Amino acid sequence: MIPGFSQRRRFADLSEQEILALAISSEEDDARIYRSYAEQLRAEFPDSARIFDDMAAEEDEHRRRLIDRHKARFGEVIPLIRREHVSGFYARRPVWLVQNLGLERIREEAEMMERDAQGFYEKAAAQSQDAETRKLLGDLAAAEAGHGQEAERLTGAHLGEDARDREERTAHRQFVLTWVQPGLAGLMDGSVSTLAPIFATAFATQNTWTTFLVGLAASVGAGISMGFTEAASDDGAISGRGSPVKRGIAAGVMTAVGGLGHALPYLIPHFWTATVIAMIVVFVELWAIAWIQKKYMETPFLRAAFQVVMGGALVFGAGVLIGSG
Fold first, then answer.
1. Residues 6+ away with beta carbon under 8 Å from 239
2. Closest by alpha carbon to 274, among 255, 258, 286, 261?
3. Fewest CB within a 10 Å sphere: which of 2, 28, 174, 226?
């Protein structure tokens, strides 16, 4: 027998006492998760943190009702049974996996938790033979189903229009600092810095395969270097720029993408066809950079376009001159 499989029970094989015990431990876990969300959000999103505090209190009330029912039927001693002890039972993601998620993603996680809990109580109620226990489980299923409305009520109580706008601005700023800014820096670096070696190689050798290999090496190398540099430069604790891992991934991937954009056309064997397509790709990359600067960094489009196109043209010209010489 495979180790570990014998230790997991099928839900259909659980006794009513074990179902109640499982529900109690699940409510305890969910309350802890909601409180962890609240603590995670409290500094930047205090109003949303209070919503999760109230949701944790709701889970505590459910747990109290379940414990009362267990004491009435089975006594004081509650069996130790948790989600991971039941085969096929839904599992919660560890809190540390969502510590760096944005506000909206945390809200989505909470909605998923409520749907899972509703499904569990509906299944448990259908399996219960005791009328009072069945009623309690059915009531809790209805309560979980109504948590969407409850969340809206709590949101209305804690999040006025001004508070919601403030939190949305904070979330947008965090998104820009963690993803957009390092990603944009990487795209600019990858798109511009690789122009010279790629086009210098292209015009010096007029060999598309050699040019592609040089472009591939320059793009991947720059991506790795940029990613590590961004991740190591700031842990985000003081600047508030967010997870260094996320920033490093954004910078590294976008740096590689920026370089590969005009390296990939050199997979085409015909030199001038590949070069013309690469030039078109460079033009698209530079205008994309200007558009991102306008949309997320509030830089006037014409100024951003002038800066990016001018810088790209200078590096491109240097590469062509060096390669032609």
1. 177
2. 261
3. 2
Residue 237 has pLDDT above 70, yes or no: no
Q: How far apart are CA 127 and CA 26, in angstroms?
A: 18
Q: What is the DSSP string of 230-273?
A: HHHH--STTT----HHHHHHHHHHHHHHHHHHHHGGGGSSSHHH
Nearest to 105 by CA among 160, 53, 40: 40
Instruction: Look at residues 275, 287, 255, 254 and name the one whose alpha carbon lies nearest to residue 212.
Output: 275
Contact 262, 278 (CB under 8 A): yes
CA atoms within 13 A on the CB side of 264: 11
How crowded is residue 13: how many other Cβ atoms within 10 Å of its Cβ? Answer: 9
Q: Do residues 275 and 282 lie in contact, with contact meaning Cβ atoms separated by under 8 Å?
A: no
Cβ-contact 67, 28 below 8 angstroms: no
Tokens of 249: 């991934």
Of 82-86, 160-164, 231-235, 256-260, the range with the lowest mean pLDDT is 160-164
Is pLDDT at 97 greater than 60 in this prediction?
Answer: no
Neighbours of 139 (CB within 10 A): 14
SS3 44: coil
Element (H, E) at 303: helix 301-324
Comparison of pLDDT for 58 and 87, the residue scoring more: 58
All structural domains of the chain with their residue ranges: 5-159, 172-324
Q: How far is CA 222 from CA 100, 140, 151, 191, in A?
A: 26, 55, 46, 10
**Longest CA pairwise span in the chain (Å):** 91
Cα–Cα distance measured from residue 246 to residue 251, given in angstroms and rounded to the nearest whole number: 9
Residue with tokens 């196109």: 309
**What is the fold, at CATH topology level, of the domain defined by 5-159?**
Ferritin (1.20.1260)
